[in-house]
């Protein structure tokens, strides 16, 4: 059983016409939320979109029959889900359906921490993440690949810091809530 931070970068927001530029993942400790292994970044500019999707499938247990072997952990995983399922289909690959197996999406917690408001609940609004990634397509078009990798590394650090903080704080909130019952 493994929890894995999962994120992608794309050329836009439409999985019908925009492509996946990177798929990044990192194993997380199930008890602390801390990073356990190295951050893997599969880069389209080093091969192709089809090849990074194939490599992701081959190098992980994402399509195993056992649903708990790769548990995606992320922020707004619906975005990753829509791209992975659609872009895999376009390339004739098996569908990567991450929302019909166990997953942990911290976006709902971010919305609640933002007073129930969606606007202003992005990871860049709640953590030290410096931007929302809208400039990734520009960086890609300008072949500024090192800047994309730096952004991914910063985003991953901020996500994991937030995830670890939640692992520490939420059990105490449960105890506090249980005391009201």
Summarize the structure.
This protein has 6 helices and 5 strands, in the order βββαβαβαααα. With 181 residues, the protein is an alpha/beta fold. It has one domain (3-178): 2-Layer Sandwich (Nucleotidyltransferase, domain 5), CATH 3.30.420.
| Proportion of residues in extended strands | 5-15%
User: What's the mean pLDDT score?
Assistant: 96
Number of helices: 6
CATH domain topology: Nucleotidyltransferase, domain 5
What are the low-pLDDT stretches, counting only 5+ consecutive residues below 50?
A: none
Largest sheet, described in full? 5 strands, mixed
Given the helix and strand composition, which structural class is it?
Answer: alpha/beta
The CATH architecture: 2-Layer Sandwich
What sort of overall outline do the alpha carbons produce when their principal axes are compared?
Answer: globular
Indicate how many domains the architecture comprises: 1
């Amino acid at each position: 059983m493994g929890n894995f931070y999962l994120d992608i970068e794309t050329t836009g927001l439409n999985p019908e016409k925009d492509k996946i530029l990177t798929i990044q993942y990192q194993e997380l400790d199930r008890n602390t939320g801390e990073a356990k292994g190295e951050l893997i970044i599969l880069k389209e500019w080093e091969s192709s979109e089809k090849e990074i999707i194939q490599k992701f499938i081959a190098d992980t247990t994402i399509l195993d029959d056992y649903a708990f072997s790769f548990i995606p952990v992320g922020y707004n995983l619906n975005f990753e889900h829509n791209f992975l399922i659609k872009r895999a289909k376009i390339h004739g690959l098996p569908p990567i359906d991450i929302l019909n197996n166990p997953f942990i999406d911290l976006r709902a917690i971010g919305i609640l921490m933002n007073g129930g408001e969606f606007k202003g609940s992005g990871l860049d609004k709640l953590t030290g993440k410096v931007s929302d990634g809208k400039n990734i397509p520009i960086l890609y078009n300008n072949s500024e690949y090192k800047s994309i990798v730096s952004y991914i590394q910063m985003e991953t650090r901020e996500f994991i810091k937030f995830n670890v903080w939640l692992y520490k704080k939420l059990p105490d909130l449960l105890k506090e809530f249980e005391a009201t019952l």
